[in-house]
Amino acid sequence: MIRIYIFLLTALCFLGTTVIAQTNSQNSGWLFLLNNTKINEKWGTHLDVQVRSSDNWSNVKNFLFRPGITYFINPQNDVTLGYLLSETHNQIDDLGEHKLVEHRIWQQYIHKHKISTVNVSHRFRLEQRFVEKIRDQDVFAQRFRYFVRFLIPLKKEAQKFEEGLFAALQNELFFNVQHKDKLSGHFFDQNRAYAALGYRFSKKFDLEAGYLNQAVKGASTNSVNNVIQLAVYTRF
Fold this sequence. Notes:
The chain is mainly β. The chain has one helix at residues 2-19, and strands spanning 24-38, 43-53, 60-74, 77-92, 96-115, 118-131, 139-153, 164-178, 188-202, 205-216, 223-235. An eleven-stranded mixed β-barrel has the order 1-2-3-4-5-6-7-8-9-10-11. Strand 6 and strand 7 (139-153) form a beta hairpin. The radius of gyration is 18 Å and the shape is globular. Mean pLDDT is 90; it is low at 16-21. InterPro entries: DUF2490 (IPR019619).
């Protein structure tokens, strides 16, 4: 069974890299902080904060702040409604440094299960995007995202994994499902493939570092972003 999921992940990564061959290449660093807090048996909060550098780590390009409210259907399934503030700092020849702001409303469903000792999570997310544009009218668009993540404990007999070293593999596909003509003009938006090593210090705290390949289908120019990511996960 696990071989099927590994094959699926590999196929998704291959799709992302082949769809946007002959692209510009960039190198950047991302800091990712994620907290999930359980208020009671049925309700909780979600918060992730991200800081991303520009090409060659020269300065901060993106800041993302994404809070949400989660309803737990059962231990394997939950839904979240949230908001996102995204700031992008661009260097434009005749404008100097220019900040673009995007607001999003988003909804997601997460399903979690195990394959032997491997923890698997599937996330389906729909975003309503209010995008600020340079020299053009602001745009409303919707985007769908599918994310799969495998967390693999690297210790023997880790049926109840609460501490120790782990590996993480994940992939996420993005699709423009409404008003793609006002963005890149493509239904397929981007693919993010990621591999990392991490350490679980307790049930409440994980730290991991890895490589993320972000392949983006642009309106005129495609890009591949080679990302070194440091991620902190907390659970309360």
